[in-house]
Amino acid sequence: MKEQPKIDIPGTGFGSFLNAVSVLVFLTMLVYLFVQYGALPDQVPGHYDGAGQVDRWGGKEELFLLPLIGAALWIGMSVLEKYPHTYNYLNLTEENAEAQYKNGRLMINVLKNEIVILFSWINFQNIRVALGEADGLGSFFMPVFLAVIFGSILFFMIRMLRK
């Protein structure tokens, strides 16, 4: 395996903005969870089917699982974001390495923030369903979730191929 050049690629203002937005959304969801926790019934949504309807109920402690996973992913991807020379690239050369690394770093940033915002939305809806304020995630959630994640990946892959 050929060693890829190591170039220090600083974060972007857009990446910092996305980080701030996702952290704000995440913290807002956590505050909402703690404020509503006492009012929640013992059973809350634990899983949804593809149509966005609850297909498993669990204890309300499970509402802390998704934020824990989201925080772990966000932290892990934040660390990974700083090492774009470790990613796999197509047609990486000395001339395009900096542009490829910037693209790769931004892709990881966008994906981590999308995941945290989507996880926060799911947990917010879990609370609303448990309180009887909503029926489920809605039939639109799965297609939107998939379109956002895979659309972002496709966007950055096309950018990679053009660089």
UniProtKB/TrEMBL annotation:
Protein name as catalogued: DUF1648 domain-containing protein
Transport among keywords: no
DUF1648 domain ranges (all copies): 24-70
Transmembrane portions of the chain: 12-35, 63-80, 106-124, 136-158
Keyword Transmembrane helix (UniProt): yes
UniProt entry keywords in alphabetical sequence: Membrane, Transmembrane, Transmembrane helix
Matching InterPro entries: DUF1648
Superkingdom to which the source organism belongs: Bacteria
Organism annotation: Planococcus wigleyi
